[in-house]
Write a structure and sequence with these properties.
The protein has helices at about 10-35, 40-60, 65-90, 90-110, 125, 140-155, 160-170, 170-175, 180-205, and strands at about 115, 130-135, 135, 210. β2 and β3 form a beta hairpin. The strands form two sheets. Strands 1-4 form a two-stranded antiparallel ribbon. A two-stranded antiparallel sheet has the order 2-3. It has nine helices and four strands, in the order ααααβαββααααβ. The chain is mainly alpha-helical. Helix content is about 75%, strand content about 5%.
Length: about 210
Amino acid sequence: SRFPAFVEPASLANVFNDTAPLMILALGQMVVILTKCIDLSVAANLALSGMVAALLNGMGVPLPLILLIVLVLGAVLGAVNGLLVWKVGIPSIVVTLGTMTIYRGIIFLMTDGAWVNAHQMSDDFKSLPRHVILGLPVMGWIAIVVIGLAALFLTRTALGRSFYAVGGNPHAAVYTGINVGRTQAVAFVISGILAALTGYLWVARYAVAYVDIA
């Protein structure tokens, strides 16, 4: 190898940890794509959820409650996409192109374009993703857990398999008793939750929140 230090365990752990947020985000997007939809708003969801987390932290809200609020927010943002696709019948690319702009616009309205920087964040808020366990930061471990849960969910549950059925042949899926629109809506909710989780990790890891992150 030209750079033998690159393949050392510590280096590979750093590379894995730095890409962990994108892995989590990609898993949410994958679930949506499996159902023959697309979610262009994941990065905007990430940015809005991350900003909400940073603002709540600045208000002194405990970290566990921040995480709960952020995950619920992500689910709601994903549900907005899912319901518009399911109940209104708008193509997902059109829906999420619109909500992508709306979600970032909400950040601007909340902050007037201002940044939340490291000195405005508490130490515990910033330290959680960085805390090292068995040589790997918590952010990397969270990605591993999400990957494992996603693998089990998609291969070992009826709902997980229904994503494949809906994407593979939606007409046949209807005859097997699967509600195609509802299944797609659930996929958007999952994508929203994972985007929100990534939003906290991103903001805490890099200690900055602003309109255009991600």
